[in-house]
Amino acid sequence: xxxxxxxxxxxxxxxxxxxxxxxxxxxxxxxxxxxxxxxxxxxxxxxxxxxxxxxxxxxxxxxxxxxxxxxxxxxxxxxxxxxxxxxxxxxxxxxxxxxxxxxxxxxxxxxxxxxxxxxxxxxxxxxxxxxxxxxxxxxxxxxxxxxxxxxxxxxxxxxxxxxxxxxxxxxxxxxxxxxxxxxxxxxxxxxxxxxxxxxxxxxxxxxxxxxxxxxxxxxxxxxxxxxxxxxxxxxxxxxxxxxxxxxxxxxxxxxxxxxxxxxxxxxxxxxxxxxxxxxxxxx
Amino acid sequence: xxxxxxxxxxxxxxxxxxxxxxxxxxxxxxxxxxxxxxxxxxxxxxxxxxxxxxxxxxxxxxxxxxxxxxxxxxxxxxxxxxxxxxxxxxxxxxxxxxxxxxxxxxxxxxxxxxxxxxxxxxxxxxxxxxxxxxxxxxxxxxxxxxxxxxxxxxxxxxxxxxxxxxxxxxxxxxxxxxxxxxxxxxxxxxxxxxxxxxxxxxxxxxxxxxxxxxxxxxxxxxxxxxxxxxxxxxxxxxxxxxxxxxxxxxxxxxxxxxxxxxxxxxxxxxxxxxxxxxxxxxx
Lengths: 283, 283
Hints:
A: alpha/beta; 11 strands; about 35% helix; about 25% strand; B: mainly alpha; 13 helices
């Protein structure tokens, strides 16, 4: 029943937007290279993502995690390489949602939670039209999915960090996004808020949305994600947590910033607990 | 009945009535457009743009021998050209954006004054260009202000969703494939038209006050965008009315009187906000 519903939804969806090739990976990144004025942003990154996957992107500060997301979202152009969504160029797709780091949002902006979630629907509503009752219904359901229905009238500055992230998850739901890129949603959150955000992400994942989430906590990545992408300008490795979290890969990604404690558990300590988010790579 | 007389008395003169209509209309228009100017941090751009139209107005003034009617069109043309010029300069300049804008606008402003100064006894007309001459508005100009005012407000409302997303989250605008460049330039054109419309009321030197002050006052009092627009428009039009009374009874120049009233509203809003903040802390 669910797949039938999904098929119908996808067919109606693709008529209005760029064509989706059914067998193609939801995301194919080929030989992606990005250069900034002060150095390399990304170096020859290639990978495929299949529909419904949950991927954690990890790597040290300045590893190009935000850059990778921005290229996929179409915000910055690569020097070389290509991004394909369902076998087509990303132009015309509105099924990608990109959620920037919290620090990049003006939280004093005069909008409510429901207003922000509604923003996800504006290309569906189309120009010269106001949101219909159905659109508001979608917004309400999206907020219910992330357990924030009671906060819909709040000004966004009144939200806690975790609520802010969940509001953006709800916006992706309202947008009917199929691929969601989330840049460090857990950074700076306390444990209960983290759990709420993770629960919201799980709800999204249960709807079949493909998730790509960058984070610093390797344990969290290993516990909750199917595949781990280890990035430091170039793609070090990409696979299951067991395949990725090996000494040689981590040493390569984190260079001098990792220490191995020899013991029965073979523990590792990564000295990269970031709180500020990545350095502004757009500068 | 004395008060009623006091209030009605100035508007027995047709030129006062025309001035009232013009200043209320420009107040509404500039506060509406000014909402985005405030939220996007474009106050400096607005000020620069206003000063940059002076040479165009000056050339029109020379060619038409001081006729006021065609000056509106000269102002409009120059404002739009300057908006595109400044927009392009701020994107591709080799120096910092505010430096580039300052060089251009002060140069243009000086050029305007230089052109006007070639005319004998230029000071009176120059004063009108700089500080406005709302009491000298002709009925033809009132119609122009009304026509363009309706057009501007209509466009702001018609593209409300698009401007909102573009201002709050430009990255979302990109991922939703909203034609960003088009809307960015449309916004510049709307600011340019607003400046042309306000030329007669407050003049180029005080223009930025009409764009920024009422919208900023409203920003202090509300956290909802539509309310901010409406409240800003209300304060701007009341400023127009009160300013004209001040001008009539205290024999003060009309443009500065309107701007000072708007400034007083800002002070009042600030006071209300800090009282509210104190009350909230006491609870």
